[in-house]
């Protein structure tokens, strides 16, 4: 019996080798094989079912999450999975859990800020999950402004301990994942106070709950902060609150990798440079960018497949209607998102390299690239997560009414994804940091200090401020050097314009404050250039497989030209391109959409997602959408009875005109 | 005892009479008084509590909705509320329910398409809710393309009946609100077939459930389509599915206001003009635009109040930190949304007038304005709902992490609002209709046919295609005629450019298809012009109250200039304004933000929303955010026990290294 495949015809149309594209997407054959194997493992395991998630109550959902996390850990041990494989397993289980914070924040925090002794003491326990940790930084009153945290850790020289305390309501820790119900330990951030002096915010390892009975230790108040966006989604996570009432911990539980408190209560910098902590930050942000490409590709996969199934209008002589993917509006909304998924994937890959590079430099005491790396990772985190959040919702809209059903998978995907715009740095706050870095770079241009890395192009500012775009025909826009120069010129001109406007203010700080919206826009321009450039650099590598590179070239052009169209004002108002060249770009874009069209289904197949991971009836691999939607509907609890509960109390009295006497 | 008011200082800053602004917002003193009274009535009634909504299971939520709907109806009868008051009551109960469709779609459909006899028969029952109706148009396979519906209504001359039938799975009705569990009747749309001839889609009144025991009548399969976006939100509604298996209804249950089937099965147009049905459409769309301003103003109210409470960074000498509303980025994201709320309110008000106007014309057999009215209402529905959906999510982001909590009210508001982008016409499909209308207008320009109403400016296309914007200094942008001309020129130039490009295609239809994305953009430009113009027209009226008009002028400028900034590419590339003029607009915008700032809280107070209606801890009138967030957290079911359910099965075995032997 042949398997049902409504997309077979679409798959036949593909002009490239899908299997090779899967490898290009995954990053390497090995990465592909691990992903493929682990995702199937998860998909075939009934414990990891998630199709009923939106119907569970908070308690049921949380219980289900604990079960999955335990089962996942069991499988990791039974199958002796490597760290990479274990990470993939958690990824494909696709349900936020305390363990994400344990592995993703608690352990890296100790690794990044602990001394060698601290690492030797705590990490082995953490690796075995004999303790479960969370990352407790944010408070009710302070998130973005970490330096404003109010929790105190006061050194008591009599007992050689720190006393952790929450002096105000707003100093309550608030948001840390895993804290609410599970974590036994936290890396908690607090103001270090020794001898009455405030040394600012530092990290401390604090035990929260007894390892015997899981009860909070004396002086600790801890709980869950309540429901969040959506049904299912991030409600599987026990984001928590925490108050300390004079909780004592030994002195050696302050993370002393970078600064220390001596037995006498003296505060000292260690000989390890402070900058080392930035390694962790780059690592975390690189992961967030990779997650953006995953979430985005997932939404795009659903919307693309459904757009090929969905037919609406345009039937001729009783024939089938037009697939909505054939409408140019649908293409102009969808294909740039498809291209962005690939663009973010490749810039994420490059960030992995950057992480290795910066780590090596840090260990060699070379801090020269840090400001640039800091700005670049902050900016990429910001623009990729913002774009992904918007894109998921656009994909939902692209599915018409049916996208609004939970069974489309898109509502949960949106709800679970969007906090990425806020955590690990609010996206606006991050853009402003990039903006400041850009201004600093511009202000230093005359000084002989040469900009490096992703900002190197500013060294050519003089040229970029007066260059003219060479485009004469639409196809000129396919040339990489033309694209790069246009994006460089746009970014340079916006940055320089900002700097000039700032200089008009008597106090520079006032200029920064007043023009911050412009700075944020300049930052976006700079970061989009980075993504475009890295995509183009990727294409300069050898990429095997029939037609694979060609498809990626098309997507790269779609990515760049759709950005150009969206931000046309930047390009034209700064004189980087003429209105006519803008119109030619738009024309080229339309031609590119026609080239993407026959390959669209194969391009999303290349993500290699199982139906389990996608979690969407609209995105099913086989395209068998309607019968499955119909089947799914009947599972709703409301359909357990034909006449709904409440009929006699609430509906019948209305119909029978008895409402005035009804007891409600 | 004085009431707590953390916003007291902000309220003192206001430079206008808030009470008078409340009336300007409501539209009239009478409308204000009704809203005010009814909203308090709802807020003070414990049955209408909604703060626990996101924690209810689907069944509990639905039961809660039935209860509220019954109680609302009871109050309507007890208090002898007018139709307007009853509508307001449902509005402030703020929980989608079957009754919305009964009053908002079922009754208007009969009113709009029924004969006088049909109205006399059905409406009295409907007004008393002796029957409860829904509007069953969309099917699993067809939404946007109404003409493609598959359900059939075949006339049987032997029995003088129609036989309603669902011939395929995709012909199942799918989405109608109230259908799933409650409605006793539907206006169902089906292809009318007489004598083997298909006369296209018509409406039929069909009884679905027994009035005795609420069981579906023979031949009818009906149920709920399952969970939708979010928790709470639209899940209170029983959007339903429906299949007909040869269901017979008397001939007089076809809505025969416009066309009829005789006893012999002859299909005839009635002498009432077809166009009359458009009245209903204008009515429904006007309501959707009004709802957009309500949803948007609600989100803006929450984000504005919280932005004045939230402080982050910028503490000097230990003083308080900066209110985030003082950051220019926050202002540049928030204030345009505040301005949009007012803009949509006023264009909604104008649409009410338009509805009256078009109704009068229709009855006087004057159909001349119909195409323009059709395009204008389609376009306004599209741009106001799209903008509102985006804005709610932006408001959520403006609240940082805490906006992600259900208790912020923003997640539910988003989830419940967004389908407005899809129902009553997918927003892209609607824009394309506007685009076609624009092209038709442009193509006819030479013909002597004068464009009327909102498209009248196209009559001055010749001038608009070559005019130059007069702005020389930033404050020139405050002049209404300059704004209007810039927006008219932009729209005219985009439309004319589209039409020229379309004419390059050998077949015009190919041009329409290929350039549809450009058409949609031109449509947006046209519709934004309408909103800007109507805001400006409003300001030409007498608006009483100290400072009220002045504030509205500021908001009008913010609305127009923020759009200009966002769509700068349109304006500059088409040569409507120069890049320098664009920069001046941006400069003026910044100055305007500073003028809005001291009035921001009062401007959202003017919406006159109760805390009940807002449903947001962040948006509380008194600004007492943190203690209430803390209190609310403890109500989560997860906090019922200190040690979570599942600890012994799932957490302890991990910590104790017993996971391999644990029974999961
Ligand atoms: C799902 C989720 C999980 C989380 N997990 C954790 C965790 O495990 N551990 C943990 O410690 N924390 C966690 N957090 C907290 C998160 O890190 C913070 O929410 C985040 O840092 C943003 O801070 P905030 O909420 O204070 O936003 P705010 O800073 O209050 O932002 C509010 C608004 O003010 C603006 N703003 C703030 N400062 C400025 C400025 N200087 N200039 C201009 N505008 C400004 C912002 O742009 C935003 O629009 C989590 C949050 C969420 C939503
Ligand atoms: C919450 C909710 C409540 C509803 N309530 C009711 C109700 O009470 N009664 C009722 O009858 N219906 C109801 N509906 C159904 C609603 O009217 C339809 O969903 C709506 O008309 C959109 O149609 P669709 O779902 O078929 O979208 P589709 O037409 O399938 O849209 C899918 C995609 O195709 C695109 N597309 C479609 N046609 C074209 C074209 N010609 N050109 C370019 N692009 C195109 C769209 O832009 C969209 O991106 C409801 C829907 C929702 C979500
Ligand atoms: Ca729920």
From TrEMBL, chains A, B:
<feature type="binding site">
    <location>
        <position position="177"/>
    </location>
    <ligand>
        <name>FAD</name>
    </ligand>
</feature>
<dbReference type="Pfam" id="PF14749">
    <property type="entry name" value="Acyl-CoA_ox_N"/>
</dbReference>
<dbReference type="InterPro" id="IPR009100">
    <property type="entry name" value="AcylCoA_DH/oxidase_NM_dom_sf"/>
</dbReference>
<dbReference type="InterPro" id="IPR037069">
    <property type="entry name" value="AcylCoA_DH/ox_N_sf"/>
</dbReference>
<dbReference type="GO" id="GO:0003997">
    <property type="term" value="F:acyl-CoA oxidase activity"/>
</dbReference>
<comment type="similarity">
    <text>Belongs to the acyl-CoA oxidase family.</text>
</comment>
<dbReference type="GO" id="GO:0071949">
    <property type="term" value="F:FAD binding"/>
</dbReference>
<keyword id="KW-0560">Oxidoreductase</keyword>
<keyword id="KW-0276">Fatty acid metabolism</keyword>
<dbReference type="InterPro" id="IPR046373">
    <property type="entry name" value="Acyl-CoA_Oxase/DH_mid-dom_sf"/>
</dbReference>
<keyword id="KW-0274">FAD</keyword>
<protein>
    <recommendedName>
        <fullName>Acyl-coenzyme A oxidase</fullName>
    </recommendedName>
</protein>
<dbReference type="Pfam" id="PF22924">
    <property type="entry name" value="ACOX_C_alpha1"/>
</dbReference>
<dbReference type="InterPro" id="IPR055060">
    <property type="entry name" value="ACOX_C_alpha1"/>
</dbReference>
<dbReference type="InterPro" id="IPR002655">
    <property type="entry name" value="Acyl-CoA_oxidase_C"/>
</dbReference>
<keyword id="KW-0285">Flavoprotein</keyword>
<dbReference type="GO" id="GO:0005504">
    <property type="term" value="F:fatty acid binding"/>
</dbReference>
<dbReference type="GO" id="GO:0033540">
    <property type="term" value="P:fatty acid beta-oxidation using acyl-CoA oxidase"/>
</dbReference>
<dbReference type="GO" id="GO:0055088">
    <property type="term" value="P:lipid homeostasis"/>
</dbReference>
<dbReference type="GO" id="GO:0001676">
    <property type="term" value="P:long-chain fatty acid metabolic process"/>
</dbReference>
<feature type="binding site">
    <location>
        <position position="138"/>
    </location>
    <ligand>
        <name>FAD</name>
    </ligand>
</feature>
<dbReference type="GO" id="GO:0005777">
    <property type="term" value="C:peroxisome"/>
</dbReference>
<dbReference type="InterPro" id="IPR029320">
    <property type="entry name" value="Acyl-CoA_ox_N"/>
</dbReference>
<keyword id="KW-0576">Peroxisome</keyword>
<feature type="domain" description="Acyl-coenzyme A oxidase N-terminal">
    <location>
        <begin position="17"/>
        <end position="132"/>
    </location>
</feature>
<feature type="active site" description="Proton acceptor">
    <location>
        <position position="424"/>
    </location>
</feature>
<dbReference type="InterPro" id="IPR036250">
    <property type="entry name" value="AcylCo_DH-like_C"/>
</dbReference>
<feature type="domain" description="Acyl-CoA oxidase C-terminal">
    <location>
        <begin position="480"/>
        <end position="656"/>
    </location>
</feature>
<dbReference type="Pfam" id="PF01756">
    <property type="entry name" value="ACOX"/>
</dbReference>
<dbReference type="InterPro" id="IPR012258">
    <property type="entry name" value="Acyl-CoA_oxidase"/>
</dbReference>
<keyword id="KW-0443">Lipid metabolism</keyword>
<feature type="domain" description="Acyl-CoA oxidase C-alpha1">
    <location>
        <begin position="278"/>
        <end position="439"/>
    </location>
</feature>
